[in-house]
Design brief:
It is found in: Cytoplasm. With 200 residues, this protein is α/β, with parallel strands linked by helices. It contains eight helices and nine strands. The protein binds guanosine-5'-diphosphate and adenosine-5'-diphosphate.
Amino acid sequence: MFIMSSPSGAGKTTISRMLLERDAHICMSVSCTTRPPRPGEVDGKDYHFVSQAEFDRMVADEEFLEWATVFGNSYGTPKAQVKAGLKEGQDYLFDIDWQGTQQLYQKLERDVVRVFLLPPSIDELRRRLTGRGTDSEDVIAARMERARSEISHWDGYDYVVVNDDIDACFDKVREILAAERMRRARQTGLIGFVRELMTP
Ligand SMILES: Nc1nc2c(ncn2[C@@H]2O[C@H](COP(=O)(O)OP(=O)(O)O)[C@@H](O)[C@H]2O)c(=O)[nH]1
Ligand SMILES: Nc1ncnc2c1ncn2[C@@H]1O[C@H](COP(=O)(O)OP(=O)(O)O)[C@@H](O)[C@H]1O
């Protein structure tokens, strides 16, 4: 479970898309949200867009691995897809906030890798939010307001990467993923091979 969090606008979505395009072994954990779709967002791909009533039902029926309220909207990770995939060794990418990260870490610590992206500066963060052109000025102001408190949660992550140059940032994220895949505990497929090597 490869989690990427950042203050809104720092570049998680962009880096996630690059990773999904270039790494055939990881797929996205698609969250449910009550926020309305942005232009270009596809239901079932970017998010499952659901009503508040449907979200509340899913919470009551314990269908989420974790869920949280962000910017007044509800977001949650549906259990079913991820649990089944993990069992088969599938890697999942999560674009979730610090609250969700904490919940996943508490439940599934050994399977979790936590990466936090930082913007190179507060001014650049504002430029990116404005440049993205998806939010009104009020929403951007609220996201900027929240950015500082989100950044304060950076100590709940294993890795921190500054997203200045996009390609350099992407390379670093890929290196983290590659190294984490090489952890001995995750290479259970090598057990037979190592035994064979040790056999006199
Ligand atoms: N806890 C949690 N957070 C989520 C989930 N899905 C998205 N988020 C977070 O909700 C925040 C807002 O996401 P979004 O509305 O797509 O705007 P963004 O900040 O521009 O990506 C981001 O910090 C996401 O990482 C989820 O399933 N659970
Ligand atoms: N390294 C970068 N340099 C310049 N612009 C960037 C960079 N990374 C992302 N962006 C742009 O900043 C905006 C916000 O990025 P996005 O990936 O949507 O952020 P998030 O998902 O964290 O809210 C987008 O318009 C994106 O194209």
